[in-house]
Design a protein that fits this description.
mainly alpha; two-stranded antiparallel ribbon; 2 strands; 9% strand
């Protein structure tokens, strides 16, 4: 789950316009940066320790994809145990 989270966070950070720009002055986050921060915060606050499992984080991200317009048929929770499920998302192209 950690490697999936790192990959997700890396992808999100690449999608943020101007993410590589740094200045000495504090900047007001734009909408993309705020969304990325909200997603990071949500994932960090979910207990995904071995005892608790990863399902809650997978369900939270599935809800975000649903809210973004992904069809339920394109979202799958799969895994070896009910408490250790992962999210697989199908991104349809044209």
């Amino acid at each position: 789950m950690r490697s999936c989270l790192v990959l997700l966070l890396s992808i999100i950070s690449l999608l943020i316009p101007g993410h590589a720009q740094t200045t000495g002055a504090a900047q007001t986050p734009n909408a993309h940066q705020k969304l990325a921060r909200d997603i990071f915060r949500e994932l960090i606050e979910i207990n995904t320790t071995l005892d608790e499992g990863s399902t809650a984080a997978a369900q939270a991200m599935a809800a975000r994809f649903r809210d973004a317009g992904f069809a339920e048929t394109d979202l799958k929770l799969v895994g070896p145990l009910p408490s250790h499920m992962n999210l697989v998302v199908r991104y349809r192209g044209s």
